[in-house]
Amino acid sequence: MMRIEDIYKIYQLHPSVQTDTRQLRQGDLFFALKGDRFNGNLFAAQALASGAAYAIVDQKDDKPGNTDRMILVDDVLKTLQDLAKFHRQQLNIPFLAITGSNGKTTTKELVHAVLSSTLRTYTTQGNLNNHIGIPLTILRVQDNAQMAVIEMGANHLGEIAGYCQYALPTHAIITNCGKAHLEGFGSIEGVRKGKGELYDYIRATGGTAFVMWDYDYLRQMSQGIERIVTYGTAEASTTGQILRSEPFLEVAMTRGVLQEEIPTKLVGSYNLPNVLAAVAVGAQFGISPQKIKSAIQHYIPSNSRSQLLEIDSNKFIMDAYNANPSSMQAAIENFANLVAENKILVLGAMAELGQDSVVEHQQLVGHIQKHPWKEVLLVGGNFLKTNHPYRSFENVQQAKQWLQKQNFHNAYFLVKGSRSMQMEKILEKD
Fold first, then answer.
1. Residue 264 confidence (pLDDT)
2. What is the pTM of this model?
3. Structural domain includes residue 209
4. Are residues 362 and 386 in contact, defined by beta-carbon separation less than 8 angstroms?
5. Is the residue at 341 inside a domain?
6. What is the total count of domains within the chain?
7. Measured CA angle at 337 (ends 332, 342), to 5 deg
8. Torsion angle, alpha carbons of 361, 366, 371, 376, to 10
9. Same structural domain for residues 61 and 100?
10. For position 428, what pLDDT does the model report?
11. 306: region left, alpha or beta (phi > 0 left; psi from -120 to 50 alpha)
């Protein structure tokens, strides 16, 4: 079996790694990953024929002509992670890891926008924040990098601790700990323990944590970390307040390197901590106040995260990338507070909530009932098992067909749901 140091030499000659033959480019290294429903080894020969420089496999194809550029290893996934760790060890730059129940992708994007205004900064593309995406992200960091920002998602204990073993973060942000992935974590205490594995690593290695000081539980979780940079609405080194949030969030910075108003293109007051985190990180790494402000105010969200879309006379808040009880409640409360008529909720069910899922959906119904709405559409999953006076649909297609028949004008919609519900399809044209 080839040593990781020797595979790294090959990687240095071919520093583009791919795990999907459909996205393969000439000269890539193809890692033949296996899963419950796929076996990349079966596509290794095809990858080589399509231009891959080498294929890393753990099942070798002995057909003539297919073995020359196949590198046999014990476990392709472990080799990918070990290669990422070896590459990480060659990079003497700050690595900022970001995790949390809500807001981690938006925080990552804002932080990247701020840092990349001045520093050569590499970051997680899209939502590649798992045991495959994180090593791929690390291997995309080039030698000219001055900074890396790594998003870490997790749905069970031990996951973040595992990521830290090859990402080797020097800095950390936990955005928050809410009711997400309860099926894997078991409880809110389990969520805090799981996300807290990032603080555990930072504490053990003498790193720096950026901590939202408004959250007492993050104060407690971060105890013992040598270097803490605080942000929040008060009692922190970087502070700010919501100036207005209709329709876009505007923040008045009140303490720190930047004491100005920052207009954003983000919908929702719940984005305040994400903005404050980006300002705090920028200040810590020497980004000028004006570049911090400019980066944040020009950041435009995508992928159905806190987006405001105007279609004909209607407005849509698209926050449909994911959902859990904490983020749902925050989004509904924000929407309820908007000064607008004809407000319509279109909510898809929440996933990965375990045995309490029906209870959590029923509690959310109770929260919805506290406010007046023109219409409420509840779609799929465990919403179908709740008692409520609203319109109910088995899937997003049914909800979409009903909406199209109503021909709403001058209405304001909030569209939100777990990724599996694909609520963004509400706006797709047939």
1. 96
2. 0.87
3. yes
4. yes
5. yes
6. 3
7. 80
8. 40
9. no
10. 85
11. left
* Distance of alpha carbon 253 from the chain centroid: 25
Handedness of CA 318, 320, 323, 325 (dihedral sign): positive
Judge contact between 342 and 358, C-beta under 8 A: no
What is the rounded distance in angstroms from the CA atom of residue 46 to the CA atom of residue 51? 9
Residues 147 and 263 in one domain: yes
Q: How far from each other are the two terminal CA atoms of the chain, in whole angstroms?
A: 52
Two structure tokens written together for 37 = 């429903």
Any residues with CB less than 8 A from the CB of 309 and at least 6 apart, and which? 315, 316, 318, 427
Q: Which of 73, 108, 131 is the last residue of a domain?
A: 73
Q: How many other β-carbons are positioned within 10 Å of the β-carbon of residue 75?
A: 12
Report the CATH number that the domain containing residue 35 is assigned in CATH.
3.40.1390.10
Q: pLDDT band at 335, cuts 50/70/90? A: very high
How big is the CA angle at 59 (ends 75 and 63), to the nearest 5 degrees? 155
Query: Which domain does 264 fall in, by range?
Result: 91-297
Q: Does 83 map to a domain? A: no
Per-residue model confidence as pLDDT tens digits over 296-321: 999 998 776 778 899 999 999 998 88
CA angle 179, 185, 190 (to 5 degrees): 80
Question: What is the spatial order of strands in the sheet that 208-212 belongs to?
Answer: 121-123, 147-151, 95-99, 171-174, 208-212, 227-232, 238-244, 248-255, 261-267
Q: Is 37 buried (19+), middle (13-18) or exposed (0-12) by CB count in 10 A?
A: exposed
